[in-house]
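G., before I forget:
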Amino acid sequence: MASPRQLKLGAFLMSPGHHVAAWRHQDAQADLGADFKAYVRIAQAAEDAKFDLVFLDDTLAIKDTSPQTGRFSARSAFFEPITLLSGIAAVTERIGLAGTVSTTFNEPYTLARKFASLDLISQGRAAWNLVTSNTEAEARNFGDDPHLLHADRYRRAEEFIDVVTGLWASFDDDAFAYDKASGTFYQPDKMHVLNHKGVHFSVQGPLNVRRSPQGHPVVVQAGSSAPGMELAARTAEIVFTAQQTLADAQAFYSDLKARMSRYGRDPSDLLVMPGIFPVIGRTRAEAEDKFARLQDLIDPKVGIRLLSDMIGGFDLSRYPADGPVPDLPETNGGKSRQQLLFELARKEGLSILQLARRIAGARGHWQVVGTAEDIVDQLEERFTKGGADGFNIMPPTLPGGLNDFIELALPELRRRGLFRIEYEGRTLRENLGLRRPATSRFDTGRPDAACNDSVLAAE
Amino acid sequence: MASPRQLKLGAFLMSPGHHVAAWRHQDAQADLGADFKAYVRIAQAAEDAKFDLVFLDDTLAIKDTSPQTGRFSARSAFFEPITLLSGIAAVTERIGLAGTVSTTFNEPYTLARKFASLDLISQGRAAWNLVTSNTEAEARNFGDDPHLLHADRYRRAEEFIDVVTGLWASFDDDAFAYDKASGTFYQPDKMHVLNHKGVHFSVQGPLNVRRSPQGHPVVVQAGSSAPGMELAARTAEIVFTAQQTLADAQAFYSDLKARMSRYGRDPSDLLVMPGIFPVIGRTRAEAEDKFARLQDLIDPKVGIRLLSDMIGGFDLSRYPADGPVPDLPETNGGKSRQQLLFELARKEGLSILQLARRIAGARGHWQVVGTAEDIVDQLEERFTKGGADGFNIMPPTLPGGLNDFIELALPELRRRGLFRIEYEGRTLRENLGLRRPATSRFDTGRPDAACNDSVLAAE
């Protein structure tokens, strides 16, 4: 008997919580971004709760250094994700470790190696969230050139990921003989030199790190623009996304999965995991109170600055806060996020400040305020009606908001049979139900493909 | 009463031991380069023994991919140092964590951030070993261009380290207020934007990681060429070096320390720690037997290939192994190492194979085979006669060779009062006796300077 389909869960651990005013709230540890042991406690709590993974975003800059508003932002200092996840790997056993690294400001050999090393340290629990970086503040930390245009960033990313996955196949799983008697360390026919020569990169290889028990790290993406979706359809194994409604989520889900066949991929090779910002109370009134308290802590300047960042750095503080969102030129930032926000403001007739307050928690992601039943009803609906394979939980505060989800929502998810009681496997791929990548580039790694070959061969 | 001067010790953990044939020996774990938990046990053993630090070298490539010899080399797959050290940081408390990262194939913002994050994760135990990378194999993993010339690499490194230390001073130690009531996360006058515009780099800053309890990571260097020594005199806090004799060590030590005054630095701001490859037995005969067993495991092809790599990639396998070392053109590799080896071969009239076997263990570093007394006699002599402030122990095998040093040599060092019984402090700087760097770039950070100011102010 096949076990019932269960949803996957990520814990998106943005310090010190996703709400822009989180750090001022009593449920948040304001200095979490400088306290490794506190991060470990949170990751271990997520592991005890059997989350599939913890997820860390990244920004290669302090976005806001203005003397007027910068001082109010908790996103001014935080850990670099790969070092933090490597530390967490050492004191956890089963939870997946997903970190964000940009393809725009890195070299593929360096990135492939860092994640391969994390994957080996964690014994097969690493995941790489590919981003192309979308702010000018980041570009200014890496040279004089203006930031690459959106389309150029994606062309670079397309080639980047091929180099990375090629490097991850440098050695077959059984390449290392360690044969002390004969002196054979590895078998040369199981070592593959990449010799990549492309438009953006020239990388010889091989990579100097052994493959992990899960083959190579899981590939995560978040872009929802057209080039982002195409890249995801071809290469991603998890997509974090942001849709406000079930209908939008269903449309995105079926669109993305349909694109995969073009690349010879099965829809089950990719998990769609929308972000959700849950504010949970024992009653609806308690949940609404919690949310109102967070909203009360928003400094309007900080909220409008966050909104300005999210639409690609266009400074909205120069417009009346109570006036309408102006018609803005297209910027070079994240395309899909910008469009979502403008549509939201137009549809509901929001002022700048109202829009800023609206996105202060979930930053354009799906936001649900209610009881555990309310939240699980909505998760179940998206999951069973073709809108999601799982969810990336964005706690309003850390550690408080994650504890709320674990204590209140998880028991209800389990009561309905929607979430695991124990990990199914040891590696992240095993827990996510994702297949192990081919041992070399010339092997598809699909058990069914191998079966078909045998059938054909027998005919 | 001042405590007697004691020497500092690093454990140089090259997997699976420094001898080129180490992995074939029974005292080495052949797959150490893929076994995180084994590395943790070794680091914890070094911490139990009160070593100042563990040290990881790095190469951004598999140097030897030839089907003839590559398969015999254990240096084909190993952990990336910063991920490995971040993992080790989570399960150790006091030992320093020194990792090698190249200035030639990285961006200063990325490097500053990784080490700042490791420094915070470890609560002030990180150290960065600056290298400029010296092989063509590495260059071929990072683009089409030929490898930068030696002098150009050093010019880039000079600017690189200034950007990195500038970024490490982005926030004063007390910049973060975390004041929930007023909403002030950090004090803006304690945040510094670097705005670096140089020949090689343009980096705005500030860095988005908080300073650690030791201020910033300890800066380590190893180059002994003229530009390398000048860079070290200006910026390094530890120098790993390789001299064969006491006279050479004394000359290097006094030369380097003398250069520091040009940069307004005190000789005590820099520790000279030569590498030593110790083969230790309970008797001299036992030590010599141990060494002979390792030498017997050398495959001549592998030994000559290592020698070729060490002189900058010039292929010596095309010459008769029993013939003299030919006159070679100057290459673009590590200058100081090349010169040391050629001088050694000339002075002792060694054949290619003899020279290869000679460097198969210590790779041009100082090699001592003997009892614990023999080894400690030599360490004491170098330490007390102006040749060293401490030593970087290069175990022939891992874990076996490190355990030998801990069990046999350390008790003798302690009997003579030359090494600590307990850590003096919590941070690496405290244990090394290095001063904490200034809290901002405009403060010298010297307690005596501050005192002088007070005296002047009182006059």
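The mean pLDDT of chain A is 90. The first strand of chain A starts at residue 8 and ends at 12.

More on Monday.
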